[in-house]
Design brief:
single chain; alpha/beta; six-stranded parallel β-sheet
Length: 193
């Protein structure tokens, strides 16, 4: 999988998921509005909460800094081009997106929910915060924005942990099969594996 270089001066933050509960992108948008100037937050995914998120982004005046990318089929490439991965869910099972981010070498900032603490070691491969707490999320992200060395050390530790503990191949294959099925269902061309 492509690996993030984490070389950017002002990091690019990325989140991936359905724009609906229990994924709490509203908290992420609010946190993003408190980040240092220049930090860009990309939200990948589609869902019924899109309009609500657009309204909040406009209300907070962060249309330049928070971008809704919609449904994308180049998530591994987007992860490799980012610097920090964020998951602001109110609840989660065992999020594959976090494993994918760790495999790409990204530090993970996540709410402490569900199976996340089994994946993300607080202070070692990422930072865990209370769910629904925009200021705690903003503080964790700001800390990484201003500390490139910490981003790199957390990202490297996360990648090592993902490779050592979790066999990502079955996850990846399941993901690819899911995308292919969805594309076929919509009558769209399915890319060759």
């Amino acid at each position: 999988a492509p690996r993030a270089s984490l070389k950017r001066k002002v990091p690019k933050i990325i989140a991936v998921g359905r724009l609906k509960a229990p994924k709490d992108f509203l908290t992420l948008v609010r946190a993003a509005s408190r980040l240092p100037e220049g930090a860009e937050t990309l939200i990948v995914g589609e869902g019924p909460d899109r309009l609500r998120l657009e309204q909040e982004i406009n209300a907070l005046g962060v249309t330049e800094r928070v971008r809704l990318l919609g449904e994308r089929y180049d998530v591994p490439k987007l992860l490799a081009d980012a610097d920090v991965f964020v998951l602001s869910s109110a609840s989660e099972g065992m999020p594959v997106s976090v494993l994918e981010a760790m495999a790409a070498g990204l530090p993970v900032v996540s709410s402490r929910v569900g199976g996340v603490p089994e994946l993300v070691v607080d202070g070692e491969t990422g930072i865990l915060v209370r769910p629904g707490d925009a200021s705690a999320l903003a503080a964790a992200l700001s800390g990484l924005i201003t500390d490139p060395a910490k981003r790199r050390s957390l990202g490297a530790a996360g990648r090592a942990r993902a490779e050592e503990r979790f066999d990502l191949e079955p996850f990846r294959r399941a993901h690819v099969e899911l995308y292919s099925r969805e594309l076929a269902r919509r009558g769209l061309p399915v890319p060759a594996p």
